[in-house]
């Protein structure tokens, strides 16, 4: 009887001081409350939602008002067309492997430096505005010629990487590579206009 009373007093003392009442060596169980688990799940969901919203905001900020981000390009409108011109990421590959055979990677007119994905694939052997090479070449590449920017030209084509003048404006004739005045003088104002149009790019 005395032993039972002693054990009972010990249990009361343990309970009063918050001490474990299990016998020594008994493994203690740690139970996570339902509220704690739910809170952790909610926090994880909120973090994922915030990341998604941030990504959407970045996409919106990537283009000016009135444009939408389609692949790596900002296009006018609210939806992306299905036939987006080919763009590829550099991904550590050689520049010659960026485009299919017969095409050359050229920087976008709006690009200030090559970042690895701001380029387009152009067939420079026949492209009127990038004939024989890119008008906006990648670093280390030679530039081509914009056949449409030849002074006083009325119509021209690009064949095998060479500009071919078909007709000149009235008062000018072609000498094979440029349109010269019938008096034998080249229009200097037209040359300067062509130079700045090529230097500044499209408006």
Automatic annotation (TrEMBL):
Domain of life: Eukaryota
Signal peptide start and end residues: 1-18
InterPro entries, sorted: CPL1-like, PriA/CPL1_fungi
Keywords: Signal
Species this protein is from: Papiliotrema laurentii (Cryptococcus laurentii)
Pfam families: CPL1-like
Domain called Protein CPL1-like: residue spans: 119-179
Name under which the protein is recorded: Protein CPL1-like domain-containing protein
């Amino acid at each position: 009887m005395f032993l039972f009373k002693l054990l009972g007093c010990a249990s009361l003392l343990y309970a009063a001081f918050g001490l474990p009442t299990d016998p020594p060596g008994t493994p203690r169980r740690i139970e996570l409350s339902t509220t704690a688990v739910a809170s952790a799940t909610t926090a994880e969901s909120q973090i994922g939602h915030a990341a998604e919203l941030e990504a959407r905001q970045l996409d919106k900020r990537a283009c000016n008002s009135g444009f939408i981000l389609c692949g790596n390009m900002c296009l006018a409108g609210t939806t992306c067309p299905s036939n987006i011109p080919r763009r590829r990421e550099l991904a550590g590959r050689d520049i010659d492997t960026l485009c299919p055979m017969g095409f050359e990677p050229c920087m976008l007119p709006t690009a200030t430096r090559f970042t690895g994905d701001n380029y387009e694939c152009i067939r420079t052997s026949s492209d009127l505005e990038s004939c024989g090479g890119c008008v906006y070449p990648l670093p280390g590449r030679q530039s081509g010629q914009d056949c449409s920017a030849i002074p006083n030209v009325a119509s021209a084509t690009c064949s095998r990487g060479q500009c071919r003048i078909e007709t000149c404006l009235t008062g000018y004739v072609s000498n094979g590579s440029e349109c010269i005045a019938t008096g034998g003088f080249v229009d200097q104002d037209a040359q300067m206009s062509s130079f700045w149009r090529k230097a500044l790019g499209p408006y």
